[in-house]
Specification:
By secondary structure, the protein is an alpha/beta fold. It has 14 helices and 21 strands. The strands form 4 sheets. It has an 8-stranded mixed sheet with strand order 3-17-18-16-15-19-20-21. The protein has a 7-stranded mixed sheet with strand order 9-8-7-10-11-14-13, sandwiched between helices. The chain has a 4-stranded antiparallel sheet with strand order 2-4-5-12, with helices on one face. The chain is globular and about 65 Å long. The chain starts with a strand and ends with a strand. 48% of the residues are buried. The protein binds thymidine-5'-phosphate.
Length: 418
């Protein structure tokens, strides 16, 4: 691979060059670039994984930007693998229909989902009779969505994409962008696209992991090269106001370790009484020290502590002759494994229910990813929950193994053995 990344020179929201590095997770391979077993001998490229804080607008952001084509043209992550996420999507479609108001006929209204993955969210809008269009750069995912009846345009979101959808299908009443904002380098162009396509009475609904939760729950493993930005409400508020959009409501959800859903609109009339909720978040963030540099260094020391404790626990189990496997070959799992230096000597295999991930090796750690059938065959004594955000769902699924005393290691927010 030639040079496929560039260094960040200034804040992607406010343009300030006053950036402070507070987290350094070393050099790691790309967290979603699983290795085909056939290529097990090939060397992987590694990239610096560091987070900077913008002293002007409080946006946390990676020190480098890997080319999006390298990261997203093929993407093994499928939203609909998790039942909890499917349920979350159904809830979002129901709420969105409600905020549009009782007079609106869903069938007249267009919903566009940016980075629509396998169509998980749009399926729920479709059930409510909305017209739906997905925009998804990963070929493999766009194909799955199409085969499930969700019209999907296989491209990256841009001003051009927005213009072409608007010309062909008209303005959108809802534009959704869940778990994609953090992936966009040029957030200003992203927003310009939204300004072009959004109807004057429509809503732009964004979901991002909430940085305050990352900080308080030591979720340093959610840092990987696809996540270019880590959001508080303060920088979002600034970004939106530069693009004639007002945040009208913010809600908090537990999904993905703590997520905020931000509703915005072009029209002040759409004010859902919410400017208050923006103020509430801004006050909260200030009180929590989120705008003060000194709050940030703690994350690095917590990461080191978790690494030390997790390695000690896994080594002890190994010495006792116990077998440990992991569940959830999530991108964050790969950050954790690589940062801690865990390989197949300590964790024998990783179970994941995503067919595309199975029979691959995890990047860096080279641990084999397998289907759940392996649990019965190999009977591990301990399961490290790499997808700790779905701990409840995974523990329920593996309960039958629990009966024969499988125990769980949960690494975040602190190492616990249950
Ligand atoms: P995420 O935390 O980034 O959403 O990734 C979760 C990973 O865990 C993803 O690879 C899918 C996998 N997973 C399963 O294999 N089975 C499950 O029941 C759940 C909830 C997740």
């Amino acid at each position: 691979m030639g040079k496929v990344y560039k260094s960040l020179k200034k804040c992607r929201i406010c343009g300030s060059k006053d950036l402070y590095k507070y987290l350094d997770l070393g050099k790691t391979p790309l967290a979603n670039h699983l290795i085909d077993i056939k290529n097990a001998d090939k060397k992987e490229d590694t990239f610096p994984l560091e987070v900077l804080y913008c002293k002007n607008c409080s946006l946390s952001q990676l020190s480098i930007v890997v080319e999006p084509e390298v990261l997203f043209s093929y993407y093994p992550y499928r939203s609909s693998v998790s039942k909890s996420f499917r349920k979350h999507c159904a809830g979002m479609a129901a709420k969105a229909a409600k905020i549009l108001g009782a007079n609106e006929k869903n069938e007249n209204n267009l919903v566009v989902d940016i980075a629509s993955n396998d169509g998980c969210l749009l399926q729920e809008f479709k059930k409510k009779n909305f017209r739906t269009i997905g925009v998804e750069p990963a070929k493999n995912l766009a194909k799955i969505a199409e085969s499930n009846g969700i019209e999907t345009i296989n491209r990256f979101w841009s001003r051009k994409a927005a213009k072409s959808i608007s010309a062909k299908h008209g303005k959108a009443k809802i534009i959704a962008a869940t778990n994609v904002f953090a992936h966009a380098d040029n957030l200003n162009e992203f927003m310009e696209g939204v300004e072009i396509l959004l109807d004057n009475s429509g809503f732009f609904i964004v979901e991002v992991p909430y940085f305050h939760d990352l900080m308080t729950n030591n979720e340093f493993d959610t840092v990987y090269h696809e996540h270019l930005s880590y959001f508080l409400v303060r920088p979002l508020h600034k970004l939106y106001s530069n693009h004639n959009l007002s945040i009208v409501k913010i809600e908090k959800y537990p999904i993905h370790g703590g997520t905020i859903r931000v509703y915005a609109s072009k029209s002040p009339k759409a004010n859902l009484n919410i400017s208050k909720s923006v103020e509430k978040f801004l006050d909260f963030e200030e009180k929590e020290g989120m705008y003060k540099l000194k709050s940030y260094d703690k994350l690095g020391s917590m990461a080191q502590k978790i690494k030390k404790e997790l390695l000690a626990a896994l080594k002890k189990l190994k010495e006792e002759g116990k077998k440990t496997a992991a569940y959830g070959a999530s991108a964050k799992g790969n950050t954790l494994l690589n940062y801690c230096g865990i390989d197949s000597k300590l964790v024998e295999f990783i179970v994941d229910d995503t067919p595309e991930k199975q029979n691959h090796l995890a990047p860096g750690s080279r641990i084999k990813i397998v289907d759940a059938g392996f649990l019965e065959k190999e009977k591990p004594d301990y399961l490290l929950l790499l997808a700790w955000n779905f701990a409840k769902e995974i523990m329920q699924k593996t309960r039958m193994h629990y009966k024969r005393k499988v125990r769980y290691i949960i690494p975040i927010p602190r190492v616990r053995i249950l």
